Task: inverse folding
């Protein structure tokens, strides 16, 4: 089963994913994890260079690199799905659509992703940008997305456009409360 977690930086995805993976392991499910952008892939490395100010790339091309990273990693996703009961993705194509709302090319990007492998379930941690930025203040080195309130707010609007495709979680709740919802919804999807 392919399970995806979406949300802006600071929403709590990493903490929730960690606990969910521990839960799955304790229940006897073999699980794997993949984060996008994938910093092991050719396109993922270029994306991280741009985010960390090491490379200048026009925004429209930058958004296209995310799509290329997804397509480049389709074989990796298929392989990990064969090796595991549950493959957990920390972000996938919905994040690129949501962030594209800021860059103004959301509908151009949405037409390109139709052939990607689709998750069986997507959880979206929704949190106000101001709270996310407060959570991120402890990180020594933030990328350009993690400190831009306008970008994060436009991204939230982008996620909201697709929220009918998600199970929306309140990112202001405790990770334990959200884990209960994730487990409940995941069990429903299993049956």
Result:
């Amino acid at each position: 089963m392919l399970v995806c977690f979406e949300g802006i930086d600071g929403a709590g995805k990493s903490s929730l994913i960690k606990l969910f993976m521990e839960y799955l392991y304790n229940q006897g499910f073999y699980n794997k994890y993949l984060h996008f952008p994938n910093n092991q892939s050719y396109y993922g490395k270029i994306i991280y260079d741009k985010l960390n100010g090491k490379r200048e790339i026009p925004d429209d091309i930058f958004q296209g690199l995310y799509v290329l990273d997804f397509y480049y990693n389709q074989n990796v996703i298929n392989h990990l799905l064969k090796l595991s009961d549950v493959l957990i993705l920390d972000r996938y194509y919905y994040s690129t659509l949501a962030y594209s709302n800021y860059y103004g090319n959301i509908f151009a990007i949405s037409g390109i992703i139709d052939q990607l492998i689709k998750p069986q379930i997507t959880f979206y941690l929704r949190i106000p940008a101001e709270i996310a930025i407060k959570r991120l203040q402890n990180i020594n080195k933030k990328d350009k997305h993690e400190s831009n309130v306008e970008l994060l707010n436009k991204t939230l609007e982008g996620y909201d456009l697709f929220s009918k495709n998600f199970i929306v979680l309140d990112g202001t709740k405790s990770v334990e409360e959200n884990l209960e919802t994730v487990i409940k919804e995941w069990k429903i999807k299993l049956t």
In short: The longest helix spans residues 175-190. The mean pLDDT is 90.
